[in-house]
Design brief:
The chain contains 58 helices and 42 strands. By secondary structure, it is α/β, with parallel strands linked by helices. Helix 3 crosses helix 4, helix 24 packs across helix 27 and helix 41 runs parallel beside helix 42.
Length: 1498
Amino acid sequence: MIGFDHMELSMEILEKRAEAADQISAYLHGSTQVVQPTPSAQTSQINGNSKGKQREDVSSTIVILDPDGARRRMEETLRANAERPLFTGTAHEAPETLQHVYTSASMVQGNLLSHLGTKYVLPLGTTRHHNEDYEEVTVPPTKAVPPRASERLISVAELDPLAKGSFPGYTSLNRIQSIVFPTAYQSNENMLVCGHTQGKTDVAMLTVLRVIQQHLDEVSHSGNLASAVKRDKFKIIYVAPMKALAAEITRKMGKRLKWLNILVRELTGDMQLTKQEINETQIIVTTPEKWDVVTRKPTGEGELASKVKLLIIDEVHLLNDERGAVIETIVARTLRQVESTQSVIRIVGLSATLPNYIDVADFLSVNRQNGLFYFDSSFRPVPLEQHFIGVKGKPNSPTAKRNLDRVVYEKVSELVREGHQVMVFVHARKETVKAAEAIKEAAQADGTLDEFSCNEHPQFDYFRRDLGRSRNKEMKQLFDLGFGIHHAGMLRDDRNMMERMFEARAIKVLCCTATLAWGVNLPVHAVIIKGTQVYDSSKGAFTDISVLDVLQVFGRAGRPGLETSGVGFICTAEEKLTHYLDAVTSQVPIESKFVAGMIDALNAEIALGTVANVHDAVQWLGYTYLFVRMRKNPLQYGLPWEERAEDPQLGAKRNQLITSAALQLAETRMIAFDRHTGSLVITDLGRIAAKYYIRHKSIEIFNERFRPKMSEADVLIMLSASTEFDQIQVRENEMQELESFLEYIPCTVPSTSDDKLSITSQDKVNILLQAYISQIRPEDFALVSDQAYAAQNGGRIVRALLEIAVARKWANVSAVLMGMSKAIEKRLWPFDNPLKQFELKMDTMHMVERWADDYAVSELAEMSAAELGKLLHLNEHHGAAVRNAAKQFPTVKITYKLRPIGADVLKIAVKVERAFNWSTKLHGHVEPFWLWVEDHEGAHILQLYHLVFRQSSTLIEVDFVISVSSTAPPPSVTIRFVSDRWMGAEEEVLASLENIIMPAASESHTPRLDIPYLPLTVVQNPPLVQVLSRRLHGFNAIQSQAFWSIVKTRLHALLCAPTGCGKSVLGQLAIWYVLRTSQNNAWCLVVAPRRSGALDVTADLRSCSRAADSSVELVGADRLFDPPSRKTVRVVTATDLFAAVSRRTDIKLALSRLRIVLCESLELLDAVYELGLSLLLHATQAHPVRFVGLSNSLNDSADLAAWLGVDPLALHSFRPSDRDQALSVSTHTFTIPQSAALFKAMAKPAHAAIRAAVGEPAIVFVPSRHQCQPVALDLITQCALEMESTKGYLPDDVSIERLELYLARLQNSDGLRDFITRGVGFFHDAIAKPDRLLMLELYAEGLIRVLVIPRDACWTLPVRAVTVVVMGTQYVYVQPGSEERQVRDYPLEEVVRMQSKAVRHNGAGRFHLFCQSEGKDTITRFLNDGLPLESRMLETDTLRAWYKDRRRDGSVGDKQAAVDVLSHTFLARRLVSNPAYYDARSTAVNELLSRIVDRLDE
């Protein structure tokens, strides 16, 4: 079937119809039979539901085409029609009428498709003209749509003060703005506004003002609107397609909203913003790609997304462009965020007229009736006549160029003769002059040059004088003839002059580039686009200018208020004529380009945590424009109509697309994909690719080529192979210049090393990158553009490669990549002199390279100015400049201490001291650096930190914990410092391990015996048994095994066992047993390291005190040694014990009555606890006092037992795995540094861990109170995403009414209410005590399912849970009285305490540990083997202060007396067992203690 789409062919067939009929009949085998179509075929033709079937059935129908047969068929058809009833009796829905669609076409609602459905029809009145050199299609201006009865222009005077103040200089809104005003300014509807008009920016302004209006503080209004705006409560994002447009929007909006103190800033690839600037800014203008990058990050810039109230997307019709996939990505992400967080983000799309606007409206979640506005070209302020000219001749051939010059001259001269000004747009800066010269030469040849002259202009001489100051010769020469030029390469003054002259009509023809159309509002009667080929560095080739550019240029045609019409010409190659005609006149429906970018977009969503499985991904795909168009036009996307009919929601197709993409990502190791469960888990590789916008195809290449050891040349070769550079092509005219670069670049390029030179596109990238670093600028314009593209992308990809290398712990290549990253950023090679990074004079730098190149920067910094001047053969002034630079160059002093904490575990305590002068101008606020420990071969990073110096920093302390083989220890490790910014700022220190003495492997662990459990009756104290039976049914395995030696003997004892196994019960039974057999004035002492522990012990003891006929007291230092009058148990903290035993001298009587000392939680032994117990041990030597120690499992308890004098029969040291209770431990590692991004990344797996134990309570530990609420919000968001419910973790059977009874008791309802109603609570000291107790009550009732707890509250939290999640094992430590922030690891005993919260006596527990990958081995090692325990006496001033006080009061008479006291310390034992930890080289304990006392005396 053929029709209007093939009009020429139709005309030809009609002229030769008889011949055509004969040929077709012959083709159809001459058959005389007419085959009637089948009923199904008829149905499908009527319904139009099955295009595939229709074609098949029609092709099988053989029809005779002779005149008689045709007449007979017509008569049969007419008779059949006459017999049909007038009405079918079937009601059909009327087409949807959209109230805000305004079009001048006679067809109501929407652009009409041609009858084949392949394109929309051209406007009526369109004509074609054929010329010998070109073909011209003229599209007439559209007729204006008459105003509707309800329309009126809205006067600015009637607007409220907010809107009135933001429209200065306006008397009224224009017609379009008046139509959209109620929706834009008086509602929160999502909107799509399609139209050619230039007033779309004002529509955006109305929606911006709506957000500001909703964030006004009504109370503090008082006429001053600027002070009433709550600026920190909202962000507005304006997404513009081009950087030039983004800059223009930023300028315009900033100017108009300045009166409200609203800050508008640009955030693009060129314009970065600091975190502070982002916080200060209310409106951020960005590009689609940049906003995609920003929202891929869970924090930092990404935190913006959580405050966004309005997202404006300009030029939405770019969905049809290659970049359309990015627009789909950001809209889908925003729509999912709206649904998951129940937040309100308004989306406003602005677009040129596009044919299938309803589809785009559906994609943007726009209500078709209220939010969709369509204005065709009749709404232009000046009607536009459009001319599309297809120039004949092979593209870029001399003929085509000649014809193009000729047609441009013809059109320009014709317009100038009519008295009009013309802008001729070209696509390169040099072309502006060439185009003007071509018109001038053609006019000279025609003798019409005088028509262009403006020398009769009244201001001609004045402008000519102005031009005299310019150094631009071409500009002066062309002005005399009536021509002007304008491009971004000209000086700003020259450009301004050209704009003024053109505006004053002192120039008739202005030849310019597209920057004029984007950046300057300079309307003109006629615009001509000369050629459509423009060099695109991102593609490395000449491409057709975008439709967006054409529309922007055409938008300059016509001068509102001065003319009634405008003319736009586009001159292109003949074969491109139809493309531009279709695109500019909106003939072709815009399709989705998402499939091409879907794999990388999916990876980004998985990395962000919004997609965790195939189900999530299928849902996510449902938010894209691809989904909208697949349903409308399935054939375009390889989907048969039958499949579309059977599966209207395209579930199977979406599933297939996602599965295919996931398989490819899994193949490149970017995600882990479980086909059985559909689970999608990001890997380090995928996370890094998403963060740095790296394509999955590039990751494939890196997987093949990346090696642990690579040189700079190897890195450049791999980098150049990246698919990001695929579009860069080698052109013949560039070869000579590229070859000339080879002489100056340092690294060999593979294909150029042979005798026969052949530069590939990858070599070209390599050469351009090296030339960029070497500061070589190409001459060729296209090469300049390519080099900038290579450098911009090269820096980003190198940074990604660096993170991959660091994640893989490859030391050699990490150092190389750090150098390459800085090389591209600084444009310096690693072998260049580091002082080149300072602004030294060229001659000074030359002398430094000549005379001081062999000196290290630190050596230069130590010289005087005079010495440096002499060395450099310059004067002292120059020497001082070099010295200042050298002193500001980031250098550090590294010191370290080796601290063995196990037989094969070594802690390296590193101190990094700043050794340079800080300059805010040079160093800013922070100076980031890497610090790592690598093996002796320099191949593997053993542990790594990314740290920062601040201006206030002088010293940073870092602990590295590494495994050291006990059989074959390495000879050394290297501590390496590398600045993140400064080339050459590196330090390394070799830490020798050859002479280190590691402690012997522990053999003190007690095997758990398989013995019968003891009943409670073995206590042999019926009243006590009765009390205990309320809590216990019997003794467990560990209690049964240790019972006799702990409770029934007088031996000093030590019980080390896992948390939750009942150690304290045995300790308390030992106390009651002793008191039962003692006289009336006997007493017992319980020592707890923390007050919270002392309170818990006191409560437990008091519950049994009546049964034991004893009193229990929690006492301080002043009452501890008061002689008791009856049997008493005194509970004291370690601090109070130390104070009492070190200061009081009248304690002999009390000690004579003391029977037993129970030492709780010895794993928390610190300097105060140790010294207090040591003094007590020393003081009780002459008294029969029993010591019983309780501790969590230790990896070596032998020295602790020896210190307490424990009998081997009473030493019970169990491993953590010996516990009775079932506890599953899972570890999840992360490579993201300690930051908010880390907690965002942990939210999804934390939620999954909570959900795994359905309906059971969970405790989540976070580093600090400040992180409680953000983490809780993230968990609730994850819950909403998965459950599609706003109830969060609140049980389904709990009504809000029931909850209200509890909520009414809250003292601080504002901060807690919203979380409690979603089943989440908090517990820490900053919450009022009544609210804390209410939280625990709600938790016990099962109304709160998840408790979020800061790490320091783990000691006071009185409840347990089925699931315990530790979100991170690092916290930020702020030095008291300083702003210095340091990342520190959780103490291991804290992690064990958190683990204990998952130990339950009535069921299994689950412990989920989320930690840094480098910390995993250490933590899991000690969780499995028991905690390490070393003396901390030498780490604080406690011992020194005690010694000074005792020497002063005479209680320690001399050094020998001090040595005697110290011999009773745990320190004395460890000095012998682990001397290296205490920097001791001898194992003679008295000698070591004497040295310690000597140091105390200093």
